[in-house]
Amino acid sequence: MAMHTGEPTAADREPGREEPPDTGAGAGAAVETGERHRLTALQGLAALSLDAMASVAYGPESIVLVLAAAGAYGLGFTLPVTLAIAALLAVLVASYRQVIAAFPDGGGSYAVAKRHLGRRTSLVAAASLLLDYVLNVAVSVTAGVAALTSAFPELYGERVWICLGVLALVTAVNLRGIVESAKAFLVPTAVFVGSILMMVAVGLFRDGPVSTASAAGHASALGEGATTVGALLLLKAFAAGCSALTGVEAVANAVPSFRVPAARRAQRTEVALGALLGVMLIGLSILIGRFHLQPVEGVTVLAQLADASFGHNVAFYVVQFATMVLLALAANTSFGGLPVLMSLLARDNHLPHVFALKADRQVHRHGVVWLALVSALLLVFSGGDTNTLVPLFAIGVFVGFTICQVGMVRHWSLERPARWRAKAVLGGFGALLTGVSAVVVTATKFTEGAWLIVVTLPLLVLAFEKVHRTYGQIGERLELGRVPQPPQRSRSLVVVPVSGLSLLTCRALTTARSLGDEVLAVTVTHPAPEDRRAAEALRRDWELWNPGIELVELSSPTRSPGRPVSGYVRELTEQRPDTQVSVLIPETEPERLWQRILQNQRGSVVAHAVRRDTDAVICRLRFRVTANPR
Nearest to residue 331, comparing CAs of 142, 56, 106? Predict the structure, then answer.
């Protein structure tokens, strides 16, 4: 088992994949091929910004729903609250732009905290991001499907299966590579952003709403009239609206996914994301005030705005359809950011090393599959209901934001670049805002399910620590980092389990002779009459064949070969402490995958028993059975 020390090892490669040597034209071709599977700035916007872009569908609505408790007077504070969120967005974009430059290997708040705030704090940041990414997948998929079932109520009973189908689609696209997902989702992203910007532009030229058909007949969610709005209500509205900031960190987490120069392309993507998101949030808030919009039950704020700007026509349905698609596909942000983060955790020995492996298309395949499986469990657990998951959403990302901001303050204080004091003040102000938001969101949503995040976060950190200690113990046992003693030759004995004479038996004994100084064949016999006759027939055939290798019969009251073989091997190791005992297990490998269910799995049973009960070396000899043997 290889321990990661910062440089890729042979264990980091996908099985069956050979990497060309880094010399000559071959290296150039390999680099060019690798670059094709990385993102441009525009593709990065499509692959890593869907979460943030789609948040304009529920960010302004979250603000309105909180302020509606104070009546029409409270709704007048929608734009000021949104401007405060936009200011925080600008702070976060500026900060994450610096994070990208300072930490081009990705990891975002995890990488920042690891360098400047200590390992334990970095694990808190990683755990918070991991939770946020997983919940983002579930929330995005359920929100998109909710939009679909709103348009087609007859599908409501099948929403869980539809959610799983959408998740399977997004997973399949991401298994083909992040560039493939970016290409697939570029058009939906462009349609959504274009329709929102067009809606804002058209709405600004309206003196009043063109249509209110979407809200007609729905009960108002507006509270009783009020003449004052308390600071606590504004703070809750600000914290609720900050859900629109989820996904801002995804670009900084996935810098290695960009083409060279990766940091510069990632910075451009981050700035473009911040600019588009800020313009859409502010524009929608202006329209809310301009049309004196009131929240109603069963109709989203975005739908009412589209109705008011475009009228109840084709353009209205384009906005709704684009919103539905983008909400469902916003899960792609997690598939772009989380596997990279998990690979960094794996390289630091906080997650199994399998998460650091990359496939040919630069895909962290194991991270993608793990994210899909956990998200599927959440979807089934929640019954495809968005409201069950939303209280858990965004808490993790605020924790990550706060840790990242604090870490960058320390980074600037230590590095002291030009205007470092201004950057430190800006980062500190951002940390204060996101920290307060994290506390407020957790407190207000605690009884609605946020307690689960409060419990899960430290459990994840403890799990990371446990994995790290385990790898440390393995490294100590293997004496990694030390120069070992020169290898010495010891006498070797190879044990070959057999059940009959065949070409497989011949191949196995031939291989065993080439591996060991001594070879023993063993067969397990049962006292039943039919088994005794088979054993006697094997003994006669063996003597006639006369391979020059002793056949040892192991009598067993059961027909399972595992325990008798492992017990015999254990006796050999005790009797011959200076001999290296190996067990060579011959097995057939059918040509077709489905044909493997026809096998008796004796080899797996023996291998499991020997591995469990002894320290012997296990070799599994595969004999491929093909239709046309060569």
Answer: 142
Quickly count helices (H) and strands (E) in the chain. 25, 5
Q: Judge whether 159 and 296 are in contact, CB under 8 Å.
A: no
Say how many CA atoms lie within 13 Å of 27 toward its Cβ: 4
Q: Which of 137, 181, 131 is nearest to 163 (CA)?
A: 137
Diameter of the chain by CA atoms? 105
d(CA 483, CA 462): 32
Going by C-beta distance under 8 Å and a sequence separation of 6 or more, which residues neighbour residue 229? 67, 70, 73, 74, 77
* Per-residue pLDDT tens over the stretch 312-334: 788 888 887 888 778 777 777 77
| pLDDT category of residue 338 using cuts at 50, 70 and 90 | confident
pLDDT at position 584 is 92
SS3 629: coil
Identify whether the C-beta of residue 427 lies closer than 8 Å to the C-beta of residue 412.
yes
Grouping H, G, I as helix, E, B as strand and the rest as coil, residue 589 is strand
Q: Which amino acid is at 240?
A: A
pLDDT value of residue 521: 92
List the beta bridge partners of residue 582: 494, 617
In whole angstroms, what separates CA 611 from the centre of its chain? Answer: 32
Residue appearing with tokens 């026509």: 313
Q: What's the full length of the chain, in residues?
A: 630
Q: What is the pTM of this model?
A: 0.69
pLDDT at residue 186 greater than cutoff 60: yes
Mean model confidence pLDDT for the chain: 78
pLDDT band at 459 (very low <50, low <70, confident <90, very high): very high
- Dihedral sign computed on CA atoms, order 16, 17, 21, 25: positive
CA distances to 100, 145, 164, 525, 556 from 158, in Å: 42, 10, 10, 55, 54
What count of other Cβ atoms lies within 10 Å of the Cβ of residue 170? 28
Q: What six digits make up the tokens of 144? A: 């998109």
Q: How far apart are CA 481 and CA 465, in angstroms?
A: 21
- The whole-number average pLDDT for the span 9-27 is 40
CA dist 378 and 4 (Å) reads: 32
- Looking at residues 222-250, what average pLDDT do you find? 71
Q: Cα(578)–Cα(600) distance, rounded to whole angstroms?
A: 35
CA–CA dist 617, 603 (Å, integer): 14
Phi, psi of 409 (to 5 degrees): -60, -45
Helix, strand, coil fractions of the chain, as percent rounded to 5: 70, 10, 25
Higher pLDDT among residues 432 and 20, named by residue: 432
Rounded Cα distance, 447 and 454, in Å: 11
Integer Cα distance of 186 and 184 in angstroms? 6
Helix (H) / strand (E) element for 581: namely strand 579-590
Q: What is the mean pLDDT of residues 141-152?
A: 71
b (16+ CB within 10 A) / e for 223-253: beeeeebeeebbbbbbbbbbbbbbbbbbbbb
How much of the chain, in percent, has pLDDT values that exceed 70?
Answer: 84
